[in-house]
Prior knowledge:
Layout: E1 5-8, E2 17-22, E3 31-39, H1 41-44, E4 48-55, H2 60-67, E5 90-95, E6 100-105, E7 112-116, E8 125-131, E9 142-149, E10 154-156, E11 158-161, E12 167-169, E13 171-173, E14 178-184, E15 191-200, E16 207-217, E17 220-229, H3 256-259
Parallel strand pairs: 11-17
Antiparallel strand pairs: 1-2, 2-6, 3-4, 4-5, 5-6, 7-8, 8-9, 9-10, 9-13, 11-12, 14-15, 15-16, 16-17
Amino acid sequence: xGLVRLFFVSGYSALSLLxxxxxxxxxxxxxxxxxxxxxxxxxDGFDGSLEVWRDKRLTDADLKIMRExxxxxxxxxxxxxxxxxxxxxxxxxxxxxxxxxxxxxxxKPMAEIEAKNIGMKGQRIFLVTQDFGIGMxxxxxxxxxxxxxxxxxxxxxxxxxxxxxxxTRISLMRSLKSxxxxxPAKTGGVEDILEARSYPDETSDGFTTSFSRYHRDRRGWxxxxxxxxxxxxxxxxxxxxxxxxxxxxxxxxxxxxETNR
Length: 261
């Protein structure tokens, strides 16, 4: 195995530890390929593949139950996995000839991955979604992180806050009190990400809502955040759209999209 580095994933009230294991390879005997995306020089800068592997003991029926967010019927908590717990999903970045470049061990047994072209020539991004929903509560749901790849590595995208100068990993949740969607940027022909998130505080309103815009250029991701008192709730049921795009349209306060470009 390779060097193990431990990172703190900021953001939401979900399990927040992620292991990044360069050059590590989980045993093929324990896993099966869940999803595979082909990388091409024209769209990604190099030829290769991104694969999501899951515990081979999980059946399609198991995955369906896990998507329903019922902890009482979750097969991972059942007798079949009492002796040997379900293994977390693994993302593998491979070269064109199948050589393993890097492995990312995730938090959940299941994850989905989608390629997204936001207008950066030869540089797609990859949306990796794990579902932290528990069937109840307004602060739980799928969390999507952005994976960016090169011929040598895969890395979780971080955004530089234009005001504070601090970088934080981009973690986008869909729940009753948080949602996000893509929207055209004002310049550059790319797409930005808009995010709304409400959380309780000790103000007279009881809640504060942050509205964020994430923008990607050749130097990397930046974000602008505007906060205001009051509660924001998703207009799309609990904000959940499963694992697939497009996300629901996020309604921001008047003037937000213009002042935060």
